[in-house]
Design brief:
13 helices; about 25% helix; 21 strands; Rieske Iron-sulfur Protein; 8-stranded mixed beta sheet; alpha+beta; Naphthalene 1,2-dioxygenase Alpha Subunit, Chain A, domain 1
């Protein structure tokens, strides 16, 4: 346990009570997920890329955009995941729907705009039109089609619909028509985040970065803080480094980023250096004098002061009442498999989204959203246009987030981005024998095991022919002392399959 947790638990806290979200501290035991090396092939082979597409991306809920972006009837936006493009639209009946962005005449991409307002979508190739509820509006010159001699079969030519739902003010999409509900998918972590009242938050910036690395390298980088001390030395000046609480739940995971404190890896944890004053004072409290007037202790203890300060203000700032003490000062980091991260403070937060490149496993898209808690519905300045940035470097992130993100954090993103290309290169080296993961990288291991469970089905049978364990796994190698049968991944394995599996075992 980090010293910051001990101080947190032992402090005199008369305000402790029940909250919507269970506190993270004291940390809970994490499961033993093994210590096998992480193979490099998963990051660059097209075979693995295709398995991921078939079993992960087309079978899971994907975060799209804020529901508020579809403010009026006829409002639409387009969104891409891998090789697929979608139209998400609020119809003239006010209902939100999602469709594949594909003309049903010749397969042309129907809409190339990022957003707008339309009653009908017209294919630029031959002029076929669809209403914003997905129904066919008209076919140009239908008399030219022999197959339409008895009339245009409009019911057969509507746009292909995709599952769409909302949670936390966000639109979520799923390509699997037989998927579980979004609420079931988010499970208990979705309930945890309700204390932030995310539906009242306002998007103030959204930018995209094309990185020269596989999307899983990007996920891995943000699913652990073990790298903070080496890669982000500034971060440990105003936040804890690698020794943080971690939890795993189903396909998802979370951790705490300790803020408004100084990492235990730093020798001087007491002094308010200029950087600490900027990031722990101006950024959070608004003015440095707020610290001077009310706090005279060491920099490492500032988080305790802020907790009490915000509790004293909760009648005025009412959303504080829903949050536990940790949420008032620290930053929860929630990862929803396979591609969404929520990381929030009381007043502001970020959402990260990772997307695979349509054709190249050596590239990915990293989407970065910045939101503020706008519970009072304050009028905000217009948002800058969304842009896709290629390459890396601090100046690129300074341009992308000018006025909305502190320069220190811009540099952190540049540091993370700098590793994408070199990680991708190293994964392909014949000298790389597999990634070695420590306990603080358990979320990385869990993430990859979840991918394996989705992409592969493996049955472990005992010598008596009985199935002792049924799960999804990479199954690349035969395990010593055990008999394994690898079968094609399926979304569900039914009991009628068991006799067949036993027969396969006998033949094996």
């Amino acid at each position: 346990m980090a010293k910051i947790e001990k101080d947190f638990i032992e402090r005199d806290n008369p305000t402790r009570r029940e909250f919507k979200a269970e506190p993270f501290i004291p940390r809970k035991p994490i499961p033993d997920l093994g210590h096998e090396k992480l193979d490099g092939e998963r990051f660059y082979t097209r075979e693995f890329m295709q398995k991921e597409w078939d079993s992960v991306w087309t079978k899971t809920w994907q975060i799209v955009h804020r529901e508020a972006e579809l403010e009026f009837d006829g409002s639409f936006l387009t969104h891409s995941i891998g090789k697929e493009s979608f139209i998400i639209v609020r119809g003239n009946d006010s209902k939100i729907r999602a469709f594949y962005n594909v003309c049903q005449h010749r397969g042309n991409q129907l809409c190339t705009l990022e957003s707008g307002e339309l009653d009908t979508f017209s294919c630029p190739f031959h002029g076929w039109k669809w209403n914003n509820d997905g129904t066919l509006n008209s076919v140009f010159a239908p008399e030219l089609y022999k197959q339409f001699k008895d009339g245009v079969p409009s019911d057969e030519l509507g746009l292909q619909e995709v599952k769409i739902d909302t949670w936390g003010g966000w639109l979520w999409l799923n390509m699997d028509p037989n998927c579980i509900s979004l609420k079931e998918y988010l499970a208990d972590y979705g309930e945890h985040l309700e204390s932030y009242n995310l539906d009242k938050w306002t998007l103030i910036d959204y930018q995209t970065f094309e990185w020269n690395g596989n999307w899983k390298h990007a996920v891995d980088a943000f699913n652990e803080s073990y790298h903070f001390t080496a890669l982000h030395p500034d971060m440990v000046q105003f936040g804890e480094g690698h020794d943080v609480p971690i939890e795993i739940s189903g396909n998802h995971s979370r951790m705490i980023n300790f803020n408004e404190t100084v990492s235990e890896v730093v020798e001087d944890r007491d002094t308010f250096t200029p950087l600490r004053a900027e990031m722990m004072g101006d950024r959070v409290a608004g003015k440095m004098q707020d610290i001077d007037d009310g706090f005279k202790g060491a920099a490492k203890d500032l988080h305790l002061y802020y907790i009490n300060k915000r509790r004293s203000e909760e009648d005025e700032i009412t959303y504080y009442k829903d949050m536990n003490d940790e949420q008032l000062v620290h930053q929860y980091h929630y990862f929803f498999f396979p591609s969404a991260v929520f990381t929030n403070k009381p007043e502001a937060g970020n959402v990260f989204r990772y997307r695979p490149h349509p054709t190249d496993p050596d590239k990915c898209y990293y989407d970065f959203f910045i939101l503020i808690n706008n519970a009072d519905n304050n009028e905000l300045p217009p948002r800058r246009p969304h842009k896709i940035y290629k390459g890396n470097g601090p100046e690129l992130y300074d341009e992308a987030f000018e006025g909305t993100f502190p320069p220190v954090f811009n540099n952190v993103l540049a540091q993370d981005g700098s590793n994408m290309e070199t990680m991708q290169w190293g994964s392909k080296s014949d000298s790389f024998k597999g990634g070695i993961l420590c306990e603080q990288e358990i979320r990385v291991r869990h993430f990859h095991q979840t991918i394996d469970k989705s992409c592969f089905a493996v049955v472990n049978m005992g010598d008596d022919g009985n199935i002792t364990h049924l799960f999804r796994h990479s199954g690349y190698s035969r395990h010593k002392g055990e008999k394994w049968v690898q079968i094609k991944a399926v979304s569900r394995i039914f009991c009628p399959l068991l006799p067949c599996l036993r027969r396969l075992h006998q033949l094996n």
